[in-house]
Structure formats: structure tokens, C-alpha cells
Amino acid sequence: MSVFDVEIGGLRTPSADLEQYRGKAVLVVNVASKCGLTPQYGALEDLQKRYAERGFTVLGIPCNQFMGQEPGTPEEIEAFCSTTYGVTFPLTEKVDVNGDDRHPLYRELVGVPDAEGYTGDIRWNFEKFLVAPSGEVVARFSPQTEPDTDAVVSAIESHLPS
């Protein structure tokens, strides 16, 4: 099974249809609007613009599990992201990334180690996972790793389909 086979709702639609990303590199990020790391939205959008035409997308997954830092409705989340950071990349429904109600997508992701060997629960908002065009999870980056660091950018570039 690949992450592209997992079902997840869109922010304001019944399905985010992850199958549409098969053949693309995808940076999956659990996001929040009221977090100290929220300015990462800007760098994520820059990556989206820089690599979208080469078969890449950021996929934002809103989550309210970390100190209630994503309390908004779908409409509020969408408005915040578009007006504050000009976000054009897709956002899914708000989900749990840890615990008994962990979304199946995150069940697929959390076993992948980051550069320090960490696996397991999501540590905070803006933890990042790179999914190769085949659907294999190929990299994990801590929440504090900025999206535009050399490590993230080189990982993306090495997995672009074109």
C-alpha cells in the first residue's frame, strides 16, 4: 500500500483524492495557524511555486492536537492561509496525527525515521514527510527544520519525477 491509496477528506471537499499525486513528489506537512512555526507557510508556498511545474506539491494537513493551535473551521483555515501566506497548495481536512484516532495517513508516515533516527509520534506542528512519486515515504524532517533548508530542498530535487 502507498500513501496515495489512503483516503482523506479535503479541507472543504469530501475527498482530497491522494491518488492524483501518484507520480509526483509530495511534501506532507501537519500545519497550524496559531503556532510559532506558522511562518513556515511562506517557505512551503515558495517550494510549491518553485517546483510545481516539475511534478511536486506540498500537501498541508491541518491538526489541532498541539495546544489547540489550529482551532479554525475549514473556511477560517482557508482564509488565513490564502490571505496571510498566499497559500496555493492543497489542504486536507483537519485530522489527528497522534493517538488512538491517528489518521491512517499518519499511520503510514510515522514509522519513517528522520536524519537523527527518530520514528514514532509526530512531535509538533510542521513535521514534514517527503513522499516519492511511487508513494514511498523517503524522508522525514523535524518541525524545526525550515522547508527551504538545503536538506529539504536537495531531498525534493532528488525525487522530482521530471
Automatic annotation (TrEMBL):
Keywords: Oxidoreductase, Peroxidase. GO terms for molecular function: peroxidase activity. Transmembrane segments: none annotated. It comes from the Bacteria. The keyword Nucleus does not apply. PROSITE patterns: GLUTATHIONE_PEROXID_1, GLUTATHIONE_PEROXID_3. PANTHER family: GLUTATHIONE PEROXIDASE, THIOREDOXIN_GLUTATHIONE PEROXIDASE BTUE. Belongs to the glutathione peroxidase family. This is Glutathione peroxidase. It comes from Actinomadura parmotrematis.
